[in-house]
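Running this now, will post back.
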Amino acid sequence: MSLIINSLIPKFKNKTIMRKQFIKGLVVSGALLLLISCKKEEAPAAAVVDTNKIKEEIQAKENEFAETYNSGVTKDIGYHADDAITYPQNSKPIIGKTAIVEFLKTHRDTISKGRKLNFKTEDVFVSKDGEQVVEIGYYKVTDSTDAVVNSGNYMSLFVKRNGKYVCLRDMSTSDMDMPNE
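Update: finished.
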């Protein structure tokens, strides 16, 4: 080995100092080459978000909401977040889960008795990490004869909290022609 190194080292007047510097240069160069040529570890792959599964999960939440609403029973099904805001038609925003439940109860008791509410999730837009979902859907309200009395579209923002999606914001609009006032 020393023969190889000696043959690589140029002849210098002050051999000892120059030889040490040249060897240091070779060692540093070799170390740099080794570091550069080392394969970098790849970052772990991002979790795969299954949009179809999330759409099914959101539709199941909508089905549970409709079933609970249609039954006339007021209970917490974990649909709205505590800090949720809903933007109902022809009304000011309703802020907080407690206020939303009271609004739905009043709405159910005064307007919707004998009617059935149904939701259909049309599309979901899921964030890359799966922590937020925007749902676009269609709703329909039928009377006791299954005649449509109201229908329209809605948009909801779901966020994942404690491993489950909860509705943080929602709004809807009717697609029915309203009578002239």
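The chain has a mean pLDDT of 83. More later if anyone needs it.
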